[in-house]
Please model this.
Amino acid sequence: MEILRRAFAAEWTKLWSLRSTWWTLAGAFALMAAMAFTLATSTVHNNTNDVPGDDLGVVVASETAVGAVDLVQFVVLTLAILTITAEYATGSIGTTLRWAPRRGVVLLAKSAVLAAVAFPTGMLLGLLGTAVAAPLLGGWGRFSVGGTLADSAAIGVYLALTSVLVLGIGTLLRSTAGAVTTVFLFLMALPMLIDGSSTALGRWVSDALPSSAGRHFMNGGGDSYGPAAGLALLAVWTAVFLVGARTALRRRDA
Model:
């Protein structure tokens, strides 16, 4: 336990000592504000134009922030990827593993640090998105403190789990460009391509992917399954990639 505590402290210090951490998080908040503004004004426009088919009706302000996560998440996930791939790029991973030779402990410490950062970041992103969207929506938006806190917490949980998942991908690939590309394809492009399929198998595969599971969780469920099942499925995906990363880290040279 002492080894894990020291490893966590070391990873925490490394993360916050990098300028890229601060710039990346600032970028995430800026993008959330921009996306919430765009989605809210688009909702108002669709509800007030002369095309009845565009009408969205009254929406929940905090759900605008949830919708923005589809894009904003990639800024936060890039930070998660860099926590491991940057060390491979600079060669400092060798020093890290010599200092803490139990490689599983290193991966666990990195995972804990990412979750500890991503969860409150997600909550704050949700609160920011809601704060931007609510006044813009006006009469076309509903706001409640309880709903906002619940949606913001859901964003935090989603980003915490997904950050650990992409840490696993980064550990497996050991390349920033490769990991970022893979994460984008896996979490956005692939679900969109498969979701366009008219077959039952295509819809089943799309629903089983981690991004779909996270969406079901944050949106309070869907036609295929509820939020609890979405959270459980996302947790399973995260565990699978984390176990794969641990195995690869133990078997390969730094």
